[in-house]
Amino acid sequence: MDDRRPGLNPAVAEVRRNVRAHLPAEGTIIVGLSGGADSLALAAAVAFEAPGRGVAVVIDHGLQSGSAEVAAAAARAAEGLGLRARVARVEVPSVGGPEAAARSARYTALRGAAREEGADAVMVAHTLDDQAETVLLGLARGSGAGSLQGMSPTSDFDGIALIRPLLDVRRETTRAACVAEGLTPWDDPHNVDDRYTRVRVRRHILPVMEDELGPGIAEALARTATQLREDAAAFDEMIDETIEDIVEPAEAGIAVSVAALAANPAALRHRIIRHVVASEFHQSLTRTQTVAVARLVTHWSGQGAIDLPGCRARRVAGTIEFTRRE
């Protein structure tokens, strides 16, 4: 399909082109819709590129006065585009940060809707700007290359494909696409509320970086995420090739060869340690915990076992043994 035909707005064409590149060949597509410019532009593109296949799911978090009316208006907008629409009211727990709690509730609802609709894919409207903010927040937290990888265009969502087709599209483009298509997006007041860390990054930090360092900061951060995901994929392949030869069963756990760990560079050694704990005990290690286990390999002086989330690591003869911790 040629998006250069006369009369097609460039912003609309860009959004449609990115959606088309990520469309599953067949089946129902769940579209996460808030009513904001990003998700509304996504919904319009899905309606155009995959007619009859899209179901817009509007999540009402119930966190603001009038949220039910906003959700109903977003559903009507989706139906006007030719999508089926449904509103899902969710309860956001008070435990933990409000952003994380709302995100968890939202994804649970989207996953449930996908299963009810028999859909194999869920599309959400994260943009290049969202990606840049995610990378910058990960950098500020010092949480390692994993968080700096940002969001993947496609990831597994408990057996359902979670697709982010707009990660190469700027937020200003989605708003321009809505204007060109005569769509009126909802402006979430939370998006200008400086109580939220991401909002402060969006409204204050990134603009200052653009002013002081020059334009293109958001694109550079997004490129960094892509490069780190490529590096991580290469490391994962190396681990898959290596790990079967260096691990062996242990009572209530698993053991890894000290000699094999010592022979690998630190980056790969640390990834193997994290992989073993994640796959065997379904737990994540911090950088400090990972390095402490690695010291049983590289700086062994008779130290005792190390308590980790869900397990314990200790050096036994020529292995590092990971066993379940009650």
From TrEMBL:
Major location (coarse): cytoplasm
Residue ranges of every copy of the tRNA(Ile)-lysidine synthase substrate-binding domain listed in the record: 257-319
Enzyme Commission number: 6.3.4.19
Catalytic reactions on record: cytidine(34) in tRNA(Ile2) + L-lysine + ATP = lysidine(34) in tRNA(Ile2) + AMP + diphosphate + H(+)
Subcellular location: Cytoplasm
Gene Ontology terms, MF aspect: tRNA(Ile)-lysidine synthase activity
This protein's UniProt keywords: ATP-binding, Cytoplasm, Ligase, Nucleotide-binding, tRNA processing
InterPro entries (UniProt xref): Rossmann-like_a/b/a_fold (IPR014729), TilS/TtcA_N (IPR011063), tRNA_Ile_lys_synt (IPR012094), tRNA_Ile_lys_synt_N (IPR012795), tRNA_Ile_lys_synt_subst-bd (IPR015262)
Pfam hit, one: ATP_bind_3
Residues binding ATP: S34, G35, G36, A37, D38, S39
Highest rank taxon of the organism: Bacteria
tRNA(Ile)-lysidine/2-thiocytidine synthase N-terminal domain span: 29-203
Notes concerning its domains: The N-terminal region contains the highly conserved SGGXDS motif, predicted to be a P-loop motif involved in ATP binding.
Family: Belongs to the tRNA(Ile)-lysidine synthase family.
General function of this protein: Ligates lysine onto the cytidine present at position 34 of the AUA codon-specific tRNA(Ile) that contains the anticodon CAU, in an ATP-dependent manner. Cytidine is converted to lysidine, thus changing the amino acid specificity of the tRNA from methionine to isoleucine.
Record-linked NCBIfam families: lysidine_TilS_N (TIGR02432)
Protein name (Swiss-Prot/TrEMBL): tRNA(Ile)-lysidine synthase
Organism per entry: Microbacterium koreense
